[in-house]
């Protein structure tokens, strides 16, 4: 049985008395411990799909199950990380990462004791008492991920978590994420606009069409792990990148403008 | 993993090298500013005293610093200046605290229901538009000429301002923070206590300084209307018997009271804003 199953889920909205479709019926089955990426043009409904999985929006039809248990419309079953780090600016890093434990009713003292070794192990030792605005963007995203890890959910959704970081920091964070994924054996769904990032991290990539979104293709990334920077220069990597680029180009709203744009735009 | 600042690693510089020391410069400016401020204050006092003594200003209207100190001391020893001061500051502080707390609670409560906040909003604006001081005679009749009517006036002066400030805080909450918390399985009361209240604090704090002076104005007007005690009553009485020196004593005492309470709110602000950047 797959870990996370999305069975025929779609989302329709009504705007000015006209129904429109954000996501066409989608069916996805994600095995436990897999790293899945989703790429597609802007507004293809990736975020709507994530909101449905996280229980923040109800699908118009269909069902979502986690290890066979229905979780449609229920929050608190999966971890969710956004591009914004969403750390609470008035809390220290330590008190930020324990918030999920606090909500669950654990005492602050006990939660802190559990969080400190995690912060130290994953590159935030010494920053426990700092407030988020004292940290760089990369460091804040680390804190955000540690907060998600402390919540201890098997499935974690990432909505362009490194989108706001510079290229150097982004690569660092990708390697760091792979390390954590490997150690914690989490199931990951990862939305990105960056084709390189998707290939570098994933086992499988789902390509979405432009709005209303549906799955256009599913690409297996058969690159050996562990991966490192040299992986990005392998022939297979470049071949996958070419395939994916061509697929995404077909989804561009104005193909005539293609020539001048870089690869990672997607919209 | 903490990155060391470059400055920590520089070798001893060669002599004659120009080294910019910004902290020293800042310290020098701060020191000179304090000296300048004190000098101007002193100059004003000396000019005031001199002008009235040499008859360039009529000392009947303008009194003089030395007279104010003398008359003020008399009012402390033989009069009721200290108990008046306690009366006025007590009413002001009580009204301020009640107004700020209840106003903030009203403002924050708008987060719970959009319908409720939509219905209430125009009335908030309308109540804010009422010149509360003009209601003072009615309030004195309603609550008596004692302490209560002054507290109520100070309260009314502050409550709507505090409510509007807290409501602005509620309107400016980052929706994604709420979303993040809900995705972690938080209930509405968790979101309220862990996001809504703390993220509205800068807005509520930003009105403390305005509110303390509004509360003082409310108390003094209450005392003007009708009272047996308080600095406001002392000033009114002194004016009626043409004891202008005593009016000046009252004004100076109120100014000091205002400064002390202002400093109190600055301290409160620091306490509430630890580890944050202030709004506006």
Q: How many helical stretches of chain A?
A: 8
**Overall number of strands of chain B:** 0
User: Greatest contact pair?
Assistant: A-B, 28 and 22 residues
For the record, the CATH class of chain B is Mainly Alpha
| Rg of chain A | 19 Å
Distinct helical segment count of chain B = 12
Largest sheet of chain B: none
Strand content of chain B: under 5%
Sum up the overall morphology of chain B in one term.
flat
- How confident is the prediction overall: mean pLDDT of chain A? 89
Secondary-structure blueprint:
The complex is a heterodimer of chains A (267) and B (280).
Chain A: E1 4-15, E2 18-30, E3 35-39, H1 46-54, E4 61-66, E5 69-70, E6 79-81, H2 93-97, H3 99-103, H4 108-121, H5 137-151, E7 155-159, H6 167-184, E8 187-191, H7 195-201, E9 204-208, E10 215-220, H8 235-250
Parallel strand pairs in A: 3-8, 3-9, 6-7, 7-8
Antiparallel strand pairs in A: 1-2, 1-4, 4-5, 9-10
Chain B: H1 22-53, H2 59-62, H3 65-77, H4 81-109, H5 114-129, H6 136-143, H7 147-171, H8 175-183, H9 188-206, H10 208-225, H11 231-240, H12 244-272
Pfam family, one (chain A): ABC_tran
Organism (chain A): Sporolactobacillus spathodeae
Protein name (chain A): ABC-type nitrate/sulfonate/bicarbonate transport system ATPase subunit
């Amino acid at each position: 049985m797959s870990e996370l199953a999305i069975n025929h889920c779609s989302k329709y909205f009504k705007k000015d008395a006209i129904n429109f479709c954000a996501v066409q019926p989608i069916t996805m089955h994600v095995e436990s411990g897999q790293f899945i990426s989703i790429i597609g043009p802007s507004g293809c409904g990736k975020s709507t799909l994530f909101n449905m999985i996280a229980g923040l929006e109800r699908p118009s039809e269909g069902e979502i199950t986690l290890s066979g248990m229905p979780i449609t419309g229920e929050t608190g079953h999966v971890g969710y990380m956004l591009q914004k780090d969403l750390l609470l600016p008035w809390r220290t890093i330590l008190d930020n990462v324990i918030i999920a434990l606090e909500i669950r009713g654990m005492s602050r003292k006990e939660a802190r004791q559990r969080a400190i070794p995690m912060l130290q192990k994953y590159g935030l030792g010494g920053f426990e008492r700092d407030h988020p605005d004292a940290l760089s963007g990369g460091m804040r995203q680390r804190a955000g991920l540690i907060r998600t890890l402390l919540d201890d959910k098997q499935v974690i959704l990432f909505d362009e978590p490194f989108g706001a970081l510079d290229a150097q920091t982004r690569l660092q964070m990708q390697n760091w994420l792979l390390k954590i994924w490997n150690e914690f054996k989490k199931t990951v769904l990862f939305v990105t606009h960056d084709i390189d990032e998707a290939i570098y991290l994933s086992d499988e990539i789902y390509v979405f069409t432009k709005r209303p979104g549906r799955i256009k293709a599913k690409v297996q990334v058969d690159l050996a792990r562990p991966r490192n920077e040299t992986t990005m220069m392998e022939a297979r990597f470049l071949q996958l990148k070419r395939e994916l680029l061509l697929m995404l180009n077909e989804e561009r709203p104005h193909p005539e403008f293609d020539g001048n744009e870089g690869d990672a735009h997607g919209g | 993993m903490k990155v060391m600042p470059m400055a920590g690693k520089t070798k001893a510089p060669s002599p004659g090298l120009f080294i910019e020391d910004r902290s020293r410069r800042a310290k020098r400016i701060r020191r000179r500013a304090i000296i300048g401020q004190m000098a101007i204050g002193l100059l004003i006092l000396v000019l005031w005293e001199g002008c009235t003594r040499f008859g360039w200003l009529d000392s009947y209207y303008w009194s003089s610093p030395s007279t104010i100190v003398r008359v003020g001391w008399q009012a402390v020893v033989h009069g009721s200046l200290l108990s008046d001061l306690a009366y006025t500051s007590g009413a002001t502080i009580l009204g301020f605290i009640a107004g700020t707390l209840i106003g903030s609670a009203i403002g924050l409560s708008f987060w719970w229901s959009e319908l409720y906040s939509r219905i209430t909003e125009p009335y908030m604006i309308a109540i804010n538009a009422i010149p509360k001081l003009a209601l003072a005679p009615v309030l004195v009749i309603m609550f008596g000429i004692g302490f209560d009517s002054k507290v109520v006036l100070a309260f009314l002066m502050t409550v709507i301002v505090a409510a509007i400030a807290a409501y602005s805080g509620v309107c400016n909450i980052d929706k994604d923070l709420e979303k993040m918390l809900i995705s972690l399985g938080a209930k509405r009361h968790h979101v309220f206590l862990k996001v809504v209240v703390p993220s509205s604090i800068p807005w509520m704090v930003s009105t403390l300084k305005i509110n303390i002076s509004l509360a003082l104005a409310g108390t003094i007007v209450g005392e003007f209307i009708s009272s047996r005690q308080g600095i406001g009553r002392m000033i009114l009485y002194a004016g009626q018997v043409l004891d202008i020196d005593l009016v000046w004593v009252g004004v100076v005492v109120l100014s000091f009271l205002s400064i002390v309470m202002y400093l109190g709110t600055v301290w409160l602000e620091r306490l509430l804003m630890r580890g944050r950047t202030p709004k506006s």
